[in-house]
Structure formats: C-alpha cells, structure tokens
Design brief:
The protein has 301 residues and is an alpha/beta fold. The protein contains 13 helices and seven strands. It has a seven-stranded mixed β-sheet with strand order 3-2-1-4-5-7-6, sandwiched between helices. Bound molecules: S-adenosylmethionine.
Length: 301
C-alpha cells in the first residue's frame, strides 16, 4: 500500500517523517523519493538485522535519513535528544518483514525447522518463544493461545504443550508444529489456514509484547506530531486493529486528532495477488488538529 501511505502521510519536501517500523526500507525509500530534494526520514526498528538491509537500500539518499535501533514507542526520547517538538508524519507498518519470515532463522515461520526464538530484537535479553513454552504455567499458555491467537483449541493445546515439554523441552519450530497438529486432531488438513498460523502469531505477540508496545505508542503519539501532522498505521490482525480504531475514535471525540478513515483502507486485489501476505492489511489515518492560534502559521514542517 505504498501509494496510499505517501498520500496518507501527505509527503512533502522540507519535512521530517518517521517510519517507526522501517523493516527492509521499502516504504522509507518511497517516502525519501517523494520528498526530494530535502525531505528527511528517521527509520526505527527493533531488529538490528533488518536495519542493515534498510541501510544498504537507502544508502544513495545519503544525508537525508537516519536509522535508529529502538522501538517506535521510544520515539519521544529521540525527539527530545534532537530538541524537536514534532514531526510531519509517522508511519507504522506492523507485523513481520519478509526477511524475518524467510531468512532470519528465528522461528517466525512454521514452514522450516528453526530455533524457536521469535524475538524481533535478539539483543535485548528478553525471553524466547522456546523459554515461554518451556516455563510458562499451563493457564498462561492457554490465555496466550486464546487471547492473541483466537485459537479455539487453546485449552487442549496448552495441556499438550505441558505434556510434551515434560518429555523433551521445546527447541525448534517443528517440535511445536507436531504438538499443534496433535491438538487439532485429524481434521487439521481441512482448514483454510495452516493449523500453526494462529498459534505462531500468538507466541510472537507474547514474546515481543506487541500489544503493549502499540498501546504505549498510541498514548504518546499526539505529542510527537506537529499540528497538522499525520499518523498512518497498517495492521494485520484484529487485535492490533481494534486498539488503533478505538484510539483514533477517542482522539476524534476529544478533538486531539481528526480520524480520517472511519472504515480502514485495504489493499487492491492486484496488490494481494502480487503479495498474498498483504491480504489482511488494514490502514487507518489520523491528523493532529491545528489549534486556532496556529491556523495562520506554517505548522507542520
Ligand atoms: C512489516 S515490517 C515493515 C516493512 C517496511 N514497511 C518495509 O517497507 O520494508 C514490520 C517491522 O516492524 C518491526 N517492529 C516490530 N515491532 C517493533 C517495535 N516495537 N518497534 C520498532 N520496530 C518494530 C519489525 O522488526 C519489522 O521489521
């Protein structure tokens, strides 16, 4: 949804934009291209490996971009250090990058057999998916599978995980896939989704505390935008989308940010055909309200 992002952010030269989930730099490159000659971009990501890819991809834009290894919920610290009061636009494109899914060897995909890590930032010392599966009480696992994965077999799966780890601790993705298939019973082949899809999503959300990060970001983001500045968020599952939708509605009611999308924007069928992972994407936009005293000023850049 690159075109929609550029329009949504209202990209113009001379302004500073933040890509809070820069990933491999696809959206960032488009933002830099569309804000020539002097628009600037800060790219943030928790994953040091994808930041290296982004740095190589954006290198030809030389001094117009900076990359930061941190969470988007820490943007306030970067703005304070740079003595900046607000930026013209912030993008979050949540979920996983292709590199993480296909080449990270961190267990985000259930297709191969990889270590069960699932941390976006393997340098932060947080617990891995394997540690969570091997140590969490049964009730906690059930809650994670149910609340973050909406997995109907959450209870049975949590019980089977606890039994399996007593025989052999979890280390790899295929060990978990086998237990998931056992929990789903022989009917697992009939479903539209692979039976591991929801469970892997749930573990990734829990390991990275994704919903807490989004909530912390949403609490602070109006203070990080200049008046008239735009927020664009692309989410990939209903738990994320609900948080964003409710917050944008609350801002709108309170006169803090205007909600620009009552219904989310979705990718075109052509885009989904080219990138099937985009099929569940939902994009929502909001704009920071311009106060009366500032209406005459150039407020955004
Ligand atoms: C879907 S990818 C972004 C792809 C990017 N828009 C592009 O065009 O290449 C999502 C990225 O968000 C990053 N991420 C997830 N949680 C994060 C957080 N709390 N702070 C910063 N980055 C995060 C992931 O590491 C991943 O690289």
């Amino acid at each position: 949804m690159v075109k929609e992002v550029l329009v949504g952010l209202n990209c113009r030269p001379g302004c500073l934009y933040v890509d809070g989930t820069v990933g491999e730099g696809g959206h960032a490159a488009a933002i830099l291209d569309s804000t020539r000659p002097d628009g600037r971009l800060w790219g943030l990501d928790q994953d040091p490996a994808v930041l290296e890819t982004a740095a190589a991809r954006l290198a030809h834009h030389t001094s117009r971009f900076q990359l930061f290894h941190c969470s988007y919920s820490q943007l306030g610290e970067l703005l304070a250090a740079a003595h900046l009061e607000g930026v013209a636009g912030i993008l979050l494109d949540l979920g996983l990058s292709s590199q993480q899914l296909q080449a990270s060897q961190r267990g985000f995909s259930f297709m191969g057999d990889e270590p069960l890590d699932m941390r976006f930032n393997p340098e932060n010392g947080g617990r891995t998916a394997a540690q969570l599966l091997n140590r969490a009480p049964r009730a906690t696992l059930e809650k994670i599978f149910w609340e973050y994965g909406e997995e109907p077999q959450a209870r049975r799966l949590a019980r089977l995980v606890v039994q399996a780890r007593q025989r052999r601790l979890f280390r790899t993705t295929q060990q978990l896939v086998e237990v998931i298939k056992q929990a789903m019973g022989p009917g697992w082949r009939r479903g539209r989704l692979h039976p591991a899809t929801r469970v892997f999503q749930a573990l990734r959300i829990a390991v990275n505390r994704e919903l807490e990060q989004i909530a912390a970001f949403l609490e602070q983001v109006p203070g990080w935008l200049a008046e008239g500045g735009r927020l664009v968020v692309i989410s990939y599952h209903s738990l994320e989308d609900r948080l964003i939708k409710e917050k944008m509605a609350a801002w709108d009611r309170a006169g803090v940010m205007a909600r620009l999308t009552r219904k989310p924007l979705k990718p075109t069928p052509e885009e989904v055909a080219g990138n099937p992972r985009a099929r569940s994407a939902k994009m929502r936009l909001a704009e920071k309200i311009v106060t009366l005293s500032n209406q005459e000023k150039s407020h955004v850049c």
